[in-house]
Design a protein that fits this description.
The chain is α+β, with helices and mostly antiparallel strands. The chain has 2 domains: about 50 residues, no CATH class; about 80 residues, YaeB-like fold (2-Layer Sandwich), CATH 3.30.2310. The chain contains 3 helices and 8 strands. The strands form 2 sheets. A 5-stranded mixed beta sheet has the order 4-8-7-6-5. A 3-stranded antiparallel beta sheet has the order 1-2-3, with helices on one face. The longest helix is centred in the middle third of the chain and has 10 residues. The radius of gyration is 20 Å and the shape is elongated. It starts with a strand and ends with a strand.
Length: about 140
């Protein structure tokens, strides 16, 4: 667990706990973020306060790495980094070859791709579990 200290307005020092480090989708942009919770019971969202209210659940950190090959395929096939992350986080999952997982998520598209109009774009990253992270090994994109 990553822990750091924060100084509160009254000058007291409390521990913070890193509960998430990774990428988020902000509008149409993927951003790197770190979310910290303080262990102070005097703040609005402190972990001590949440623990008293019974609302704290164990959060799992997930690191997603996109391989160079997958990045090349994303460009060639028309998938954005944000779509790949969303497919992994919110898409349907099914087994793939070599013990990997395939995630699928459909997006409203209503655009032209390679000279043809499509309504739906389905992004399907193939992901391998490696140590303590998920590695995107390739990305398929289907247009409907």
């Amino acid at each position: 667990m990553d822990v750091t200290d924060s100084e509160l307005a009254d000058g007291s020092v409390v521990e913070d706990e890193l509960v998430f480090a990774g990428k988020i989708l902000w509008g149409d942009e993927v951003r790197d973020v770190e979310i910290l919770l303080t262990k102070s019971s005097d703040v609005l969202i402190g972990t001590a306060y949440l623990a008293c209210s019974g609302e704290v659940e164990e959060m799992q950190k997930i690191i997603i790495e996109i391989s160079p090959h997958a990045r090349d395929q994303m460009v060639e096939r028309g998938a954005s980094e944000a779509e790949v992350y969303l497919a992994i986080e919110k898409g349907e999952v099914e087994p793939a070859r070599k013990g990997r997982k395939q995630f699928k998520k459909s997006f409203q598209f209503n655009e032209v791709w390679r000279g043809k109009q499509y309504k739906i774009k389905q992004v399907a990253p193939i992901v391998a579990d490696k140590d303590d992270k998920l590695v995107v090994v390739t990305v398929y994109v289907f247009y409907f």
